[in-house]
């Protein structure tokens, strides 16, 4: 880990201001951004003026908004990450086979973050797009990522709390740990209505050439269109096959026993 002396606080504050823009604060004013970030108004003002000069925000009267230039940050990630380019045709194949949305996610802190996606229909009330974050503990993608994550990562998730997002969400710590052990044993995860009522999803791990789980491949539908039993019977075999082929394209080779 880098020495604390190498930490540049001004960059942290700049990103805090950028990340404060969301669906609830599309065009916030100075006071709203200061409240959201915990920074002083003068500090937020200086950061905004800097970001404006760089082209990432613009002002209209007392209101501020993001510019399309911020999209280039995510574009650079996609362009520099071969996994996304490699996975895209496989996502299309999975979606075509199931008739449902197919997604690829990576773990970032306590969240599973969508890094690639082939949408079919709107099955979640939240707007799902590249960069969307969902709680890892209550999603099939997140549980796949956590099942192979270091113990310290799982402990951090648990320490942050396992709130009930729906009446079906697993919130008991020991039950949650047992779920992760089962996911690792099965090699896949099905989550029904724990993240959102009506949402049914299944995920499998994607590995890089070293064998590390670097992403989770998922297929999502609704309980009105399918069931856990049907997903287990019809989708899991296909999902595992596609995940294995993505892993193979990333250089992963299964070592014979």
Features of the shown structure:
Beta-Lactamase; 257 residues; Arc Repressor Mutant, subunit A; two-stranded antiparallel ribbon
Question: Can you walk through the features of this model?
Answer:
The protein is 44% helix and 19% strand. With 257 residues, it is α+β, with helices and mostly antiparallel strands. The protein has two domains: 4-70, Winged helix-like DNA-binding domain superfamily/Winged helix DNA-binding domain (Arc Repressor Mutant, subunit A), CATH 1.10.10.10; 81-249, GAF domain (Beta-Lactamase, 2-Layer Sandwich). The chain has a six-stranded antiparallel β-sheet, sandwiched between helices. The protein has a two-stranded antiparallel sheet with strand order 1-2. Helix 5 runs antiparallel to helix 9 and helix 6 crosses helix 8. It is globular. It starts with 8 loop residues before the first helix and ends in an 8-residue tail after the last helix.
Count of spatially separate domains: 2
Helix content: 40-55%
Spatial gap, N to C terminus: 36 Å
Described by its quaternary structure, the protein is single chain
Class computed from helices, strands and strand pairing: alpha+beta
Shape: globular
Q: Strand order, main sheet: write it out.
A: 5-4-3-8-7-6
Q: Which sequence of SSEs, written as H and E, runs from N to C?
A: HHHEEHHEEEHHHEEEH
Please outline the major beta sheet. 6 strands, antiparallel
Q: What's the CATH architecture name of the largest domain?
A: 2-Layer Sandwich
Look at the structure and give the mean pLDDT.
89
| CATH fourth-tier homologous superfamily of the largest domain | GAF domain
CATH class of the largest domain: Alpha Beta
CATH fold-level label of the largest domain: Beta-Lactamase
Number of strands: 8
Beta-strand residue fraction: 15-25%
Number of separate helices:
9
Structural Rg: 20 Å
Low-confidence segments, given as residue ranges, are: none
């Amino acid at each position: 880990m880098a020495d604390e002396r190498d930490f540049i606080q001004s960059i942290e504050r700049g990103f805090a201001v950028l990340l404060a823009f969301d669906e609830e604060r599309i065009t916030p004013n100075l006071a709203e951004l200061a409240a959201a970030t915990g920074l002083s108004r003068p500090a937020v003002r200086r950061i905004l003026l800097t970001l404006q000069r760089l082209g990432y925000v613009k002002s209209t009267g007392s209101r501020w908004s993001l510019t399309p230039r911020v999209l280039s940050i995510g574009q650079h990630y996609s362009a520099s990450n071969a996994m996304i380019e490699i996975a895209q045709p496989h996502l299309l194949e999975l979606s075509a086979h199931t008739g449902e949305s197919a997604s690829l996610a990576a773990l970032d802190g306590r969240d599973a973050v969508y890094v690639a996606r082939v949408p079919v229909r709107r099955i979640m009330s939240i707007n799902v797009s590249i960069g969307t974050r969902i709680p890892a503990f209550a999603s099939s993608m997140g549980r796949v990522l956590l099942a192979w994550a270091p113990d310290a990562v799982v402990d951090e998730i648990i320490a942050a709390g396992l709130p009930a997002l729906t009446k079906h969400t697993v919130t008991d710590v020991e039950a949650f740990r047992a779920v992760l052990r089962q996911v690792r044993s099965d090699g896949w995860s099905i989550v029904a209505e724990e993240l959102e009522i009506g949402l049914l999803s299944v995920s499998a791990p994607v590995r890089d050439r070293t064998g590390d789980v670097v992403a989770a491949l998922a297929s999502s539908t609704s309980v009105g269109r399918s069931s856990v039993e049907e997903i287990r019977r019809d989708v899991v075999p296909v999902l595992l096959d596609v995940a294995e082929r993505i892993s193979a394209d990333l250089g992963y080779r299964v070592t014979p026993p």
